[in-house]
């Protein structure tokens, strides 16, 4: 029986079965990069070039030799897919290499087949460029089938146009055209189905890994806020990570020693030991997770010959690119790490490092707030001191008892300014603090200063930042009431609206000083910043001013105040 198109088709499909087995193994290997829009690394391109060149050349060898040295083959599958996955350059180089091999084999269709293979690789690469931002279309089996069909049709046209003599080329094309177009199109479509299934599995694993890493990060968020480097924090972190991962053991280290170790091997891996006992002194300086999966690279415990741990992943923790420690996960001999665990642990490391950065930022912000609080505490207005002493001197001549009371108030005021070390006080404590100041100012202004208070008694226990009221009341007296010749009125109100508390400090002078200067303006700015840092941007200070008539500074706080 002679060679027929049906026999050629069956033989090509049999050859394609070999391709599919090889392709299935390759698709599930780490050598095949994800089919995504971002540019491939050089190493990935070389990997693709070698695989698809071998696949394309194999398509030639598994083909059917015909009269005149022509070969019915499945080269198009490797050439087209190399371009669609690796881009134009990978596709062209695969096509040129496999084409050169085809020329080396000889035959009347050698040159036309070689050019067609290079064209098919280029065509696949151009399609990748066109659909780079549409991965769903790029990974479609329909797209792979259509591109391969077009490539094979052009291939047959090359055979007709370039093969000599023409009388021999036409019968060959009639014999092989349909089987080659169908077999190569089917093979490319099936390969893309396998590749897409692999991609969907990896995506689902990636999504699960991200969710898992976020769970770990969420549970460790409050712990990281305490800082990093203390055994207490390290033990809590290690317990949470082991609970979520289910690994055999977890260690948390700084750059020199073990901070915490929980799980298998805790009897000989203890806090305080140098990290060299975990075999990480030569691998913890990089910025990527280090994997000793127990098969190609064995974890060797330096602390005990009977250590049950056989594989390990080291996840670096960094702040601003500087290594500050590691999280290390261990498994026993019977439960080794897989390659996919690397992506999970890298995600955990990135999230924990981000939390450490946020914690460090919050720590620095808190230090700034403390510094500003100390600035408020140490801020003694010379004019107030001099005016107070002059007032006491004047009162001493006419009312020594009153002068003694004023000295007590002055002493209490400065003692509170200098010795209040707590960051938090109650509204009642704030009012007691400013009462000494107001008593001195009332003696100074005599009948020209009237102070009114309207405080909801249920709010006296409200927790608020220390030194919230004193700078605001001093600002009202110094920049408001003292500038008018008329009777000055200072009002302090505290009331509740819904889930918020409002404290108004009001004067009837209407001379508002913006919080960008010094003295009281600076104090107002610091008070507003501290409240926002501690409670959120929706809280703080607002000012309403009617020139020469009214200035009202309002402090907005949550009804629950600062947390305990």
Task: Please tell me about this protein's structure.
- By secondary structure, the protein is of the alpha+beta class.
- The protein has 3 domains: 197 residues, Orthogonal Bundle (Arp2/3 complex 21 kDa subunit ARPC3); 128 residues, Beta-Lactamase; 180 residues, Heat Shock Protein 90, CATH 3.30.565.10.
- Helix content is 56%, strand content 15%.
- The protein is built from 15 helices and 14 strands.
- The strands form 4 sheets. The protein has a 5-stranded antiparallel β-sheet with strand order 4-3-7-6-5. A 5-stranded mixed β-sheet has the order 9-11-12-14-13.
- A hairpin with a 2-residue loop joins strand 6 and strand 7.
- Helix 2 packs parallel to helix 4.
- The chain is elongated.
- About 2% of the residues have low confidence.
Estimated share of beta-strand residues: 15-25%
Structure class: alpha+beta
The number of distinct helices, counting runs of at least 4 residues, comes to 15
In angstroms, what separates the terminal alpha carbons?
A: 94 Å
Choose one word for the global shape. Answer: elongated
CATH topology of the largest domain: the name is Arp2/3 complex 21 kDa subunit ARPC3
Uncertain runs:
280-286, 515-520
Strand order in the largest sheet: 4-3-7-6-5
Q: Level of helix content?
A: 55-70%
Q: What is the domain tally?
A: 3
Which sequence of SSEs, written as H and E, runs from N to C? HHEEHHHHHHHEEEEEHHHEHEEHEEHEE
CATH class of the largest domain: Mainly Alpha
């Amino acid at each position: 029986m002679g060679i027929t198109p049906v026999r050629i088709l069956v033989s090509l499909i049999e050859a394609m079965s070999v391709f599919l087995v090889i392709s299935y193994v390759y698709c599930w290997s780490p050598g095949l990069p994800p089919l995504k829009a971002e540019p491939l690394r050089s190493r990935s391109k070389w990997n693709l070039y070698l695989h698809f060149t071998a696949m394309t050349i194999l398509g030639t060898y598994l083909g059917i030799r015909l009269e005149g040295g022509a070969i019915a083959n499945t080269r198009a599958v490797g050439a087209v897919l190399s371009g669609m996955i690796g881009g134009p350059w990978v596709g062209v180089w695969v096509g040129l290499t496999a084409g050169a091999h085809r020329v080396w084999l000889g035959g009347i269709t050698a040159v036309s087949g070689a050019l067609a293979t290079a064209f098919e690789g280029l065509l696949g690469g151009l399609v990748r460029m066109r659909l780079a931002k549409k991965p769903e279309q790029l990974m479609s089996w329909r797209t792979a089938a259509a591109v391969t069909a077009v490539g094979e049709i052009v291939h047959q046209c090359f055979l007709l146009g370039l093969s000599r003599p023409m009388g021999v080329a036409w019968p060959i094309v009639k014999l092989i055209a349909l089987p080659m177009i169908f077999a190569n199109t089917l093979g490319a479509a099936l390969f893309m189905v396998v590749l897409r299934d692999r991609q969907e599995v990896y995506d689902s694993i990636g999504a699960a890994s991200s969710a898992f890493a976020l769970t770990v990060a969420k549970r460790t968020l409050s712990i990281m806020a305490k800082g990093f480097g203390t055994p207490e924090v390290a033990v809590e972190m290690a317990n949470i990570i082991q609970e979520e991962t289910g690994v055999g053991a977890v260690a948390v280290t700084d750059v020199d020693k073990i901070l915490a170790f929980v799980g298998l091997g805790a009897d000989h891996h203890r806090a305080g030991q140098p990290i060299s006992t975990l075999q990480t002194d030569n691998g913890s300086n990089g910025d990527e997770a280090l994997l000793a999966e127990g098969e190609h690279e064995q974890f060797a415990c330096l602390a005990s010959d009977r250590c049950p741990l056989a594989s390990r992943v080291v996840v670096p923790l960094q702040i601003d690119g500087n290594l500050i420690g590691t999280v290390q996960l261990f498994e026993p001999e019977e439960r080794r790490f897989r390659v996919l665990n690397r992506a999970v642990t890298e995600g955990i490391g990135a999230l924990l490092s981000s939390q450490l950065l946020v914690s460090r930022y919050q720590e620095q912000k808190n230090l700034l707030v403390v510094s500003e609080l100390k600035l408020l505490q140490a801020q003694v207005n010379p004019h107030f001191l001099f005016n107070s002493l002059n007032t006491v001197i004047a009162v001493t001549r006419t009312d020594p008892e009153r002068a003694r009371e004023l000295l007590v108030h002055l002493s209490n005021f400065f003692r509170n300014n200098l010795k209040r070390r707590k960051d938090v006080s109650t509204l009642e404590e704030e009012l007691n603090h400013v009462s000494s100041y107001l008593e001195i100012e009332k003696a100074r202004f005599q009948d020209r200063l009237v102070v009114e208070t309207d405080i909801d008694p249920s709010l006296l226990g409200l927790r608020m930042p220390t030194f919230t009221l004193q700078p605001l009341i001093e600002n009202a007296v110094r920049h408001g009431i003292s500038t008018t010749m008329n009777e000055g009125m200072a009002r302090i109100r505290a009331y509740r609206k819904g889930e918020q508390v409002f404290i108004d400090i009001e004067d009837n002078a209407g001379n508002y000083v913006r919080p960008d200067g010094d003295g009281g303006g600076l104090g107002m700015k610091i008070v507003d910043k501290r409240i926002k840092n501690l409670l959120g941007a929706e809280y703080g200070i607002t000012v309403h001013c009617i020139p020469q008539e009214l200035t009202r500074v309002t402090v907005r706080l949550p009804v629950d105040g600062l947390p305990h």
